[in-house]
Each structure stands twice: as C-alpha cells, then as structure tokens.
From TrEMBL:
Pfam families: Sacchrp_dh_NADP. GO terms for biological process: glycolipid biosynthetic process. This is Saccharopine dehydrogenase NADP binding domain-containing protein. Residues 7-138 form the Saccharopine dehydrogenase NADP binding domain. One of its GO terms (cellular component) is plasma membrane. InterPro entries: NAD(P)-bd_dom_sf, Saccharopine_DH-like_oxidrdct, Sacchrp_dh_NADP-bd. Belongs to the saccharopine dehydrogenase family.
C-alpha cells in the first residue's frame, strides 16, 4: 500500500501532542509528516504555537481531520501514513480504536501510554493480527516506559555476567535554585492513573489470558520491601515501593526475552524517592486517601471532578507551566545485582551468592512531556529505519522487546536522554 506520509501525529492539539509537534520539527527533519485530530482550529493553533517556539515556519505541515468516534475517518487517516504517533489519551477510552484502524490499514503504531491494562489488552487482542499484517504496535513509548525499559537493557548488556535483580529508584529535582509552584502533571495523566487504579481487578483477568505459562521461580529472590523506608543504596534517602507502569512493561519485556531467547528473566522492584521525610509522609497520606475514595463511585467522581483539591495541587486541567517543565530534572537509578559468571543454563535457580553489582543512571530534563515526545518520535523513526532489527515481522510489543537491537538508545542519548554506567564494583558474598 502506497503511503503519502512517513509519520502522522494523532491527537496533536492535546497537551502532550503540542510538545510532540515541537520535537517533530527537529527529529522528523527529512521525513514527510502531518498532524491529525478532530478540531482543525485547535490543530492550527498547535502548529502556530510550535512555530513561535521553534522560530520556524510550519505552514506547509498538512492537517488531517480524524475523530476517535468515526471509524471511517480514522482509517482514512491511518491509511495515509507508515507510522501513527498516537497522543490521544486516556488510552483506556481512546486507544483501541486507533490500534484497530492501524492494523486494518497496514500501519505501524506507537503511543505514550502509561496504562498497563490498555497495553496488555492490546497485546492479548491484537498481537497475532498485527503479526499477520506485518504491523508493529509498540505501546508505552513515552516517559512510561522507555527510560526504565531500555535502562534495564542497558544495564543487562553492560553487566558482563548474569543479572539476578534490579532495583529502580525514580528521582526528580529542579535545576539550580528553581522553586516550583503549581501542578506537576497534566489532567489527562492524572485521569489515566485514577481509571487504572479503579480497574485493577480487570488487569488480573487480562494477565490470566495473556500469560498462560508461569515464568520460572528464580533464586535468590529479590527482597520485597514495602512501606516507607530508607534506601541504603541511595545514602539512606526515603523511598516507597510503587506499583508502576514501568514494572509492568519491564516484566513483559523480560518474559519476551525468556520465551524467545531463553534469557534469564530479571526480577524488578520500582521505588519513588523523596527529598524529605515530611514530603514522603504527605505523599503516603494522599495515597491512603486516594485508595479509600477510589473504591466508591462517588469518591471516584470527586477525584476526577476536583483534581487540584484531591491531588493536593499535584495536577490541574491546565497542566504544569513551560518554565516548570524546563526546570524539572529526572533521574532513574538502576541498581543491578548478579554474578560475574555467565551460566550455561541461565534459567536454573542459582545457589551461589551474588558477587557482582552495577549501577546505571538515566538522566533527562522535562521527563513527562519533553522526553516523552522525543521517545515516541524516535521510536517511530526506529520502525521506519530499523525494521530489519526488530522481532518477527510485526506484532504488539513493549519498547525493549521491540527496540533492543535497534539504535534507539543511542538516538535518545544523542537527544538529551543519557544512559550511563556509573558504578561497577564487587560485593562480598552473602552467607
């Protein structure tokens, strides 16, 4: 099928979509691309905002009207391009329609979802059809979960031995003496999280169907630290274990590597860190309140209708300011433990105490929207350029499963998302 465009950005007038247009000016230079959505006026405004930001005329960027509730318009949009960059969330409500249209029109698809139920449901429902049609559907190509998923691959590839487990610590700070005021995330991100938490039981049912066989039991078992605690690995910084989308995505990638390459799965635990005990206690208190409210219909309605109040100012419908995004620094610390040896049968339980430790760090500025935009666009470029290095001839994948053998990590590193091995030392055997 002849395709007019290399990339179409769908949902381009939304909060994230506007950042994607900005980054596309640079990252899609030399490619034919267009923007799409249901409201032409808002799309024109988004293009004009990008023109001001980039100091470059974008008047020749085509606009394609497509509505998530109009299947014909979606197919008309998807059939014109090689890859759709889908920025239209929450994906629980607006994701599947685009995935379905892409597969039926032989079009690749990437998105910035951080919603495990959506991502795993798409794999369950559409993997075989995408494979049959030679289409790559890669979900979670934004801040959730490219840094963590590819950071795990980076550590694994540099370990030169066998990795048993990785603890992932999420850290955020501001540049220099910048003082933040106002929300940290956009409402759509908050909305997706609320819906995901309220439907957690549905995810269990999806996983029963998707993962028919259990992964091998691995030893030594990574310590399951729950509750607020100090992390010895981070100079006693306060931490809290979190059930993140990153962990869900990494587990899918590790399962793929095990089932296809007989690679020993890595045990993963994810944690968020806090600048102070008071901040940690406030966050825990907010989490307890949210968990209680979300169990009831009226409570969920209040959370969605009054985001500023019930997120303690963490989110708003306007989203964070340009200045705040530009001054937000994100660090992902991955601390891996394992063995110097590469075992002949890496899946077998290993009774030898771990004797090797390595730390990797992924660093970036403006993670939620700037990095998300870079990651999803470079994922699209990887499909365009590196299809021969991707698994099979299509299917529904997590980022690491899809892009492990491509140049995506290097492309990210070249564009402000740095992957570093910052420590490689021996630890004493645990008796």
């Amino acid at each position: 099928m002849d395709k007019k465009f290399d990339v179409i950005i769908f949902g381009a007038s939304g909060y994230t979509g506007k950042y994607v247009i900005r980054e596309a000016v640079k990252l899609l230079s030399g490619y034919k691309w267009a923007v799409s959505g249901r409201n032409e006026k808002k799309l024109i405004e988004a293009i004009k905002a990008a023109e001001i930001y980039c100091c470059e005329s974008l008047s020749d960027i085509p606009i394609i009207i497509a509505d998530i509730n109009d299947e014909k318009s979606l197919k008309n949009m998807t059939m014109q391009t090689k890859v759709v960059v889908n920025c239209c969330g929450p994906y629980r409500f607006f994701g599947e329609q685009v995935v379905k249209a892409c597969i039926e029109t032989f079009t690749h698809h990437v998105d910035v979802s951080g919603e495990p139920q959506y991502m795993e449901s798409m794999q369950l429902k559409y993997h075989l059809k995408a494979l049959e049609n030679g289409v790559y559907i890669v979900t979670g190509c934004g801040f959730d979960s490219v840094p963590a998923d590819l950071g795990t691959v980076c550590l694994q590839d540099n370990f030169k031995g066998t990795v048993n487990s990785i603890k992932i610590y999420i850290q955020a700070r501001y540049l220099n003496d910048y003082e933040a005021f106002g929300p940290i995330v956009n409402y759509a991100t908050y909305e997706s999280a609320i819906h995901g938490m309220s439907h957690a039981d549905q995810l269990k049912d999806v996983r029963k169907e998707l993962f028919k066989t259990k992964l091998p039991k691995l030893k030594p078992i990574i310590e399951n630290i729950s509750g607020l605690h100090k992390a010895d690995d981070l100079n006693s910084k306060w931490c809290l274990s979190i059930p993140s989308a990153d962990q869900s995505v990494i587990n899918r990638s590790q399962r793929f590597f095990y089932e296809n390459y007989k690679q020993r799965p890595i045990q993963i635990r994810t944690f968020t860190t806090f600048a102070s005990l008071s901040t940690a206690l406030k966050t825990v208190s907010a989490g307890i309140l949210l968990n209680k409210m979300i169990k009831y219909k009226r409570g969920k309605e209040l959370l969605l209708n009054y985001p500023e109040l019930f997120s303690f100012g963490f989110t708003s419908r306007k989203g964070p300011s340009e200045e705040q995004n530009a001054n937000t620094v994100f660090e992902l610390i991955l601390i891996g433990e394992g063995w110097n040896e590469t075992f002949n049968d890496p899946v077998t339980n290993i009774d030898i105490p771990v004797n090797k430790k390595m730390t990797c760090k992924v660093t970036c500025i403006n993670p939620l929207y700037g990095v998300a935009s870079k990651a999803v666009l470079l994922s699209a470029v990887s499909i365009l350029n590196d299809c021969d290095k991707m698994p099979y001839n299509g299917g529904v994948f997590s980022p690491a499963a899809a892009f492990k053998n491509t140049s995506l990590i290097q492309k990210l590193d070249d564009n402000g998302v740095t992957f570093e091995v910052i420590e490689n030392n021996e630890i004493k055997a645990k008796l």
